[in-house]
Each structure stands twice: as structure tokens, then as C-alpha cells.
Design brief:
The chain is globular and about 65 Å long. Helix 4 crosses helix 15 and helix 13 runs antiparallel to helix 18. It is built from 18 helices and no strands.
């Protein structure tokens, strides 16, 4: 008998998902370079992929968390505390890196940017107040608006209440959770096509030429993010696991960071991160809560953006920033970043609040925000990639350190 030679499509389908995403990435670049006029036509593929992720994420988080808590066995640890500790320390460390980089490589801005819409919060108290109020939002409204703090709060409360329900009810919750997870798996399988559309549309945008005027600012911001991703995060992982951190870090950057870079939404990347945690062999009781929570409060990239942009404004206006003030800014930026929205550009409206620490006028601060939106095609993409990949890195490190189990990196 002769074995039929597999077709090109069959060989493509047998490749790993990340290999397929890489091919979609290259094809998107090629289309943008060779036929830029065709990019608006394929942009729909990227828009559909992001919409599908955003649509399924709130339902997935709500059902998954509720089912995990309802079926949680008494006495079984969830290992959430070490993960939350890493979230806090990681965000503050990222803000400190941004302070040091801004003082070492000061940036000057041309403050003649167009006005933008949006109302910044009045201060750090306002940010934290909004964060707490989100937890007690109407559950239907929370699901409709993808308010993940509210979704988590209701899922936890219902999960605790349903722990005393009949076994049949808890089994039904598990079945629904598995069904939604199956839908997520199908959506993620279309990631290569979605990435193709997103890359082509992004590179085909003529607005990319405007980035050249902000090259120094972008280098400082993206440089800080790369330093955190490749140096600071591995140090935290080594501290927790005591072994080579780079297999885990690079796996998370490759499988979570790439999709987050192009979706530019931590919320949309929640299904991708949950799927990756499952393949890493982590406890569902841990990652079903820590991943959606991390999409809201683990914001190393946002802390970097807020800090660098604020210090750039201060330097432009000739305001002298001493080390104590800079350290205070890093703390405020880290805390404020926890309240940043999980959507594209969510951290930029927090810049006026940080600028207020140095007495910078609100009108000037909003010009800085407008500059942020100009560079957001790169800044926000890199920020989201760092935020989202760090969610998985810290969840894996915290969980593995608490249980002593090895990560299943070969499956990821």
C-alpha cells in the first residue's frame, strides 16, 4: 500500500498553534508591504477575532469561577495569596524601573497635541473607589460591559452559596463550564487568521509614520517593558522556583504575549491565558480566579506608561523631580495601574492624575494623554503583551512554588 502524501493544508493544520500564528504574522506583514490597499479588506478578520474573544471572555470567567468554587473540596488550598503578592510586587517594580529609566534618559515632548475626549479620574482615591464600586455592580450589567471585577465578585458569591447545593447542580455547573471552554478552544483555533487580519490592518495604517516624531519616547517606554519582561519577571520567577525561569517566561511571551500584542486588550486575552494555564498543568481553582483578576490589577505595563509619560511632561516643563518624589510617583502609578481598564488605551487617562503630583496643569496633562494615543499603536500593544503574559507567569510561579509541582512546559 502507498501512503498518500499530505497536502499543504493538512501539513499546516498539523502544525502547533504558535507556528500557525507565526505564519499568519508573516503573511500579514507581507500583505501590508506588497499590497497595502488590500489591508482594509482583511481587517474584518482581526475585528471578528477580537469580538469573539471579548464576547466569550465574560461568560467564561463567570461560569468557570463559579463552577470551580462550587466544586472546591474543603481544605484544598487555592494558592491565590502568593500570586497576588507577585502581582503587587511586579507592578511596583515595573514602575520603579520606569522611574530610573526616565531619570537616566530624560524625554522632552512637543506639547501641541490635539484635544481628545475622555474624563480622567480625580485622584488615586477616585481610582480605588471606582474599583470597589465595580465589585458591586449589577451582575447582568457587569456581564454586558465586561466588568471583570463585578463578574468575579458575583461568581465568587454564587460559587460559595452553591457549595451546599446538590451534587446534580454542581455537576451541571461543571458541564456548562466545560461547554463554554470548548467554545473558547474553537475561538482560539482561529487565532492565526485573526492575527493575520490584525497585523495587516495595523501595518497598513498610514498613522505609523507619525511614530517617528516620538521615537525617543517609545524607546524609553518599550525598553522598560522589555527589561521588565526579560529581566525583572525572570528574577521573580527564580525567587519563587529556584530554577531557570526563561523556559516559562519565553513560553508565556510566545503564547500569551503575541496574541495580546495584537488584540491590545487584557480582557480579550483572558481566554488565551486560561487555555495556556490549563496546558501548563496549573490548578483550575487558582488560575480561574487569578487570570481574570490579573487582567484588572496586574498592570506592570500600565505603571510604566503612566510613570514615563508623567516624568516626560515634568522634564518638558522644567520641573525638577527629586528621587523621593519619583519614588512616590512609582507607588502612585503602581496603585493607579490596578484601576486601569482592561481595554486598549485604558492606562492613558490615568496620566493627568499622576501629573497632578507635580502641579502640572490639567490641560497640559491632557495633551500628554493625546500624545499617548498617537503612539498607542506600539505603546499599548507592548503594554498589553507585558501585562497579559505576566498574568500567566506569576500565576504559574506562585502556584508551582506553593505546590512543589513541576510545570508541564512541553505541553504548552
Amino acid at each position: 500500500m502507498t501512503t498518500a502524501t499530505p497536502t499543504a493544508m493538512q501539513r499546516l493544520m498539523r502544525m502547533s498553534l504558535i507556528s500557525q500564528i507565526a505564519i499568519g504574522l508573516l503573511l500579514g506583514i507581507a500583505l501590508a508591504l506588497l499590497a497595502p490597499g488590500a489591508t482594509p479588506s482583511v481587517a474584518l478578520l482581526g475585528d471578528l477575532f477580537i469580538s469573539a474573544l471579548k464576547a466569550v471572555a465574560p461568560v467564561l470567567v463567570f461560569v468557570l469561577v463559579m463552577a470551580a468554587i462550587a466544586n472546591h473540596k474543603h481544605g484544598q488550598p487555592t494558592h491565590i495569596r502568593p500570586v497576588l503578592t507577585l502581582y503587587l510586587l511586579g507592578t511596583l517594580a515595573a514602575a520603579l524601573v520606569a522611574v530610573l529609566a526616565s531619570l537616566t534618559f530624560p524625554t522632552t515632548l512637543v506639547l501641541d497635541a490635539p484635544k481628545i475626549s475622555g474624563t480622567p479620574p480625580g485622584g488615586i482615591i477616585g481610582v480605588l473607589k471606582n474599583l470597589l464600586l465595580s465589585a458591586f455592580s449589577n451582575p447582568v450589567k457587569a456581564l454586558m460591559e465586561a466588568n471583570f471585577i463585578g463578574i468575579l465578585a458575583w461568581a465568587v458569591m454564587l460559587g460559595v452559596a452553591l457549595r451546599h447545593a446538590s451534587q446534580t447542580t454542581r455537576t451541571l455547573l461543571n458541564d456548562v463550564s466545560n461547554a463554554v471552554s470548548a467554545i473558547v478552544h474553537v475561538v482560539i483555533r482561529f487565532a492565526p487568521v485573526g492575527i493575520f487580519g490584525l497585523v495587516a490592518a495595523t501595518l497598513g495604517d498610514s498613522g505609523l509614520e507619525a511614530l517617528l516624531g516620538y521615537a525617543h519616547l517609545l524607546l524609553v517606554i518599550v525598553g522598560c517593558m522589555l527589561f521588565v519582561a526579560l529581566v525583572v519577571n525572570p528574577l521573580f520567577v527564580f525567587w519563587k522556583l529556584g530554577s531557570n525561569p526563561y523556559p516559562l517566561v519565553l513560553t508565556c511571551l510566545r503564547e500569551s504575549g503575541v496574541t495580546a500584542f495584537f488584540t491590545r486588550s487584557s480582557a480579550a486575552n483572558i481566554p488565551v491565558n486560561l487555555e495556556l494555564c490549563k496546558r501548563l498543568g496549573l490548578h483550575e481553582d487558582t488560575y480561574s480566579i487569578s487570570i481574570p483578576l490579573g487582567a484588572t490589577i496586574n498592570m506592570a505595563g500600565a505603571a510604566i506608561t503612566i510613570t514615563v509619560m508623567t516624568l516626560a511632561a515634568a522634564h518638558t516643563l522644567g520641573i525638577q523631580v527629586d528621587l523621593a518624589s519619583a519614588l512616590l510617583l512609582s507607588v502612585v502609578s503602581g496603585l493607579a495601574a490596578c484601576g486601569a481598564s482592561g481595554v486598549a488605551g485604558g492606562s492613558l487617562l490615568l496620566i493627568p492624575m499622576a501629573c497632578a503630583l507635580f502641579g502640572i496643569d490639567a490641560n497640559v496633562a491632557m495633551q500628554v494623554v493625546a500624545i499617548g494615543f498617537v503612539i498607542s499603536v506600539v505603546q499599548d500593544s507592548a503594554e498589553t503583551a507585558l501585562n497579559s503574559s505576566t498574568d500567566v507567569i506569576f500565576t504559574a510561579a506562585g502556584s508551582a512554588a506553593a505546590t512543589g509541582e513541576s510545570l508541564q512546559l512541553e505541553r504548552a
